[in-house]
Description:
Largest sheet: none
Number of strands: 0
Helix content: over 70%
Structural class: mainly alpha
Oligomer: single chain
Amino acid sequence: xxxxxxxxxxxxxxxxxxxxxxxxxxxxxxxxxxxxxxxxxxxxxxxxxxxxxxxxxxxxxxxxxxxxxxxxxxxxxxxxxxxxxxxxxxxxxxxxxxxxxxxxxxxxxxxxxxxx
Length: 116
């Protein structure tokens, strides 16, 4: 999973290079493990948001939000940060798309932060 964070770091410094040594087993984990998918999609949504890539932000945010109900929150501090950033992304998408569902997602993330 660290290789995908490495890709995000490369992107932040201006190199759009994907990890070359991702094994078949690692790729399988990414597609079958909901906790890993949640973290991966969060990271991609956050990086896309930072670069103001609207379509990518929306796509990865939707994928991340679809994984939330299927994972156990075992990293509470990390999930609080994720709720904060996903709230920002949700409100940003809502302002650009005018879709009510994104406003509701943003509100749910605000409520989740109050729980932390």
